[in-house]
């Protein structure tokens, strides 16, 4: 399928084909990007190796400039560099927060490598087996296409085998994958191709990282059931950090199937032994899956159900998420696990459905289960439940009731000091500050927020970036303008120390708007110019357009054509893009001004340039 689509000059021509065309572009860089298993970066690694061969100087320079990201793609490729976890944030399972700063940086660097290869080589890029490529890798290709549009880079990107399916895939994820492929076509500005098609006989390849090793063990029928169960749980944990939803779902399906094999009475102990052979000892409160998460067969089933529910939430299948968490509750499990599953159901009802009374019923059910608990983590589970209950009251603007629940939650974990309790404490302090902000008690909100400074003097630069930004936003609300500007500037410096152009762009654009509103035009121009610099550094057409429009407004110029061209190149944020594009096309200075970003009190932003919905 390849209908002719007219494209403006300076735009990458992207085509997807269900089969391999008889005629390919001449002198093309051809890559088989397909993989047998949905391992994150599986196809991307092949693409990047081809890029290294086609444009070695450009790709080598990029890898050396971004060594932490490159090491995540190619483990151990560059010695003596910080781990990516020291620089960027992960998702959070307990909060059902899918955004991954780490994956944004990894995929953005990979996208930049593709862009620079197209620029340096001047050759077309042909990705065969694209329909069998893992979705994480395809998100980097999508990102590269938008980046090319920003830079007016002409070229050709052809993806073949779009409707071919790999031999290993999650059955329950199939419909979601097809929707993702359609979404990819839309973001690539390519005609959609029909799916699904035939299943290939592609062979497994040697794994290059732990995720690949765990997934391969999970699908290997020659392995003992206990090995497949343990590997499946470890694969789920790895896929969580790579935002590899299809891989996590495949692991959960195969893990559940393996639980039905072998001798049930001895399987749990054998799973523990297999876990000890395979695990690296990694633990983190971002996703509480470790040796202590294991149990008997019923507890393992509930763990798989919980993991499937989280994936469903992250991919927008909220009804399926509620069903999966409910399946976990049908298992014979300890009250602490019951409480956790009710917590996830309550959080889904609150954040995704807005069904607040129903969410509080789930909280009540979880608290009732905990009345039977004598486990060491009983108080922790109660704390998380009460934290969600506070969120429901906050959503209804019943701030007094929310505050009561927050205090009860803090009482639960006040004397606990493990990583999970600290994770909850951070949330509780933050939430208390948000409650006070909502009540417009800015002084109290600032005092609460500054409690972080008393908890520890060793917070990392990434934490300081977020802390200083929120402090500045609260000070702005309190009318402490000079202190706010100073702390916004500190947050910018923190981002600068991390080489973080994403957040430098956010802060610079908002400071530009602040000074523009104050009619300090020269300073506004300076900040908008910095915002443009970092928007280009991350390849974001919309943010580039906003920054250019801000410079024009602050400089008293009514020249919008360049900003309009960049806005028209954006496919990431349709709603915001449409508002700015229409304002620029009309030359409506006030509408353009209104479309520019304002300072907020939370620095968190969605990493939608690399997300599929």
Describe, in plain words, how this protein is organized in 3D.
With 613 residues, the chain is mostly helical. 61% of the residues lie in helices and 3% in strands. The protein is built from 27 helices and 4 strands. The chain has helices spanning 42-54, 56-65, 67-73, 101-121, 135-150, 174-188, 210-219, 225-241, 245-259, 267-278, 297-314, 318-329, 335-353, 356-370, 378-395, 399-413, 419-438, 442-449, 451-455, 461-477, 481-497, 501-517, 521-537, 541-554, 561-568, 574-586, 589-595, and strands at residues 12-16, 29-32, 125-128, 155-159. α13 runs parallel beside α15 (378-395). The model is unreliable at 1-7 (pLDDT under 50).
Lay out the secondary structure.
Layout: E1 12-16, E2 29-32, H1 42-54, H2 56-65, H3 67-73, H4 101-121, E3 125-128, H5 135-150, E4 155-159, H6 174-188, H7 210-219, H8 225-241, H9 245-259, H10 267-278, H11 297-314, H12 318-329, H13 335-353, H14 356-370, H15 378-395, H16 399-413, H17 419-438, H18 442-449, H19 451-455, H20 461-477, H21 481-497, H22 501-517, H23 521-537, H24 541-554, H25 561-568, H26 574-586, H27 589-595
Parallel strand pairs: 1-4, 2-3, 3-4
**Percent strand:** under 5%
* Quaternary structure: single chain
Fraction of residues in helix: 55-70%
Helical element count?
27
Per the principal axes of the C-alpha atoms, what is the gross shape?
globular
- Straight-line distance between termini: 24 Å
Question: How many strand units?
Answer: 4
Largest sheet: 4 strands, parallel
* Average predicted local confidence, pLDDT: 95
């Amino acid at each position: 399928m390849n209908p002719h689509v007219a494209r403006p000059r300076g735009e990458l021509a992207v085509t997807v084909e269900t089969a391999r065309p008889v005629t390919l572009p001449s002198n093309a860089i051809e890559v088989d990007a397909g993989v047998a298993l949905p391992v994150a970066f599986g196809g991307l690694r092949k693409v990047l190796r081809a890029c290294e061969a086609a444009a070695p100087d450009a790709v080598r320079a990029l890898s050396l400039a971004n060594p932490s990201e490159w090491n995540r793609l190619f483990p151990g490729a560059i010695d003596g560099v910080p781990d990516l976890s020291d620089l960027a944030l992960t998702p959070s399972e307990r909060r059902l927060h899918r955004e991954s700063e780490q994956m944004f940086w990894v995929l953005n660097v990979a996208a930049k490598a593709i862009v620079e290869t197209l620029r340096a080589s001047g050759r077309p890029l042909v990705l065969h087996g694209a329909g069998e490529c893992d979705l994480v890798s395809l998100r980097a290709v999508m990102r590269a296409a938008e980046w090319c549009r920003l830079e007016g880079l002409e070229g050709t990107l052809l993806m073949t085998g779009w409707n071919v399916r790999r031999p290993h895939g999650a059955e329950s994820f199939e419909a979601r994958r097809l929707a993702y492929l359609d979404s990819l076509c839309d973001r690539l500005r390519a005609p959609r191709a029909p799916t699904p098609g035939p299943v290939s006989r592609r062979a497994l390849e040697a794994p290059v990282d732990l995720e690949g090793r765990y997934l391969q063990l999970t699908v290997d029928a020659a392995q003992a059931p206990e090995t497949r169960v343990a590997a499946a749980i470890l694969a789920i944990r790895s896929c969580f950090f790579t935002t590899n939803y299809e891989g996590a779902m495949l692991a959960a399906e195969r893990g559940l199937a393996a639980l039905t094999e072998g001798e049930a009475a001895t399987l749990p102990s054998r799973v523990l032994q297999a876990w000890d052979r395979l695990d690296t000892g990694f633990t983190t409160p971002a996703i509480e899956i470790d040796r202590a998460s294991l149990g008997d067969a019923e507890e393992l089933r509930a763990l798989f159900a919980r993991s499937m529910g989280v994936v469903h939430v992250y991919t927008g299948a909220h009804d399926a998420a509620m069903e999966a968490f409910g399946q976990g509750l049908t298992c014979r499990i300890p009250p602490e696990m019951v409480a956790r599953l009710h917590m996830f159901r309550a959080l889904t009802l609150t954040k995704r459905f807005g069904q607040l009374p129903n969410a509080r019923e789930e909280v009540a059910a979880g608290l009732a289960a905990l009345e039977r608990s004598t486990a060491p983590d009983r108080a922790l589970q109660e704390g998380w439940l009460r934290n969600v209950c506070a969120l429901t009251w906050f959503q209804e603007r019943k701030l007094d009731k929310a505050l009561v629940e927050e205090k009860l939650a803090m009482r639960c974990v006040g004397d606990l000091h493990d990583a999970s309790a600290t994770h909850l404490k951070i949330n509780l302090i933050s939430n208390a500050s948000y409650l006070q902000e909502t009540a417009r008690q800015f002084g109290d909100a600032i005092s609460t927020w500054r409690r972080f400074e008393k908890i520890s003097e060793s917070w990392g630069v990434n934490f300081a970036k977020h802390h200083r930004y929120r402090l500045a936003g609260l000070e702005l609300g309190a009318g402490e303008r000079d202190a706010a500007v100073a702390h916004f500037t500190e947050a910018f410096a923190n981002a600068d120390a991390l080489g973080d152009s994403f957040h430098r762009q956010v802060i610079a654009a908002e400071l530009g708007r602040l000074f523009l509103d104050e009619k300090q035009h020269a300073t506004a121009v300076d900040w908008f110019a910095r915002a443009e610099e970092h928007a280009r550094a991350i390849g974001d057409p919309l943010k580039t357009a906003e920054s250019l429009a801000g410079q024009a407004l602050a400089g008293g110029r009514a020249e919008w054509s360049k900003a309009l061209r960049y806005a028209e190149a954006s496919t990431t944020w349709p709603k915001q893009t449409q508002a700015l594009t229409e304002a620029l096309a009309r030359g409506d200075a006030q509408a353009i001004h209104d479309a520019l970003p304002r300072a907020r009190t939370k620095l968190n932003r969605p990493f939608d340039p690399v997300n599929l919905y």
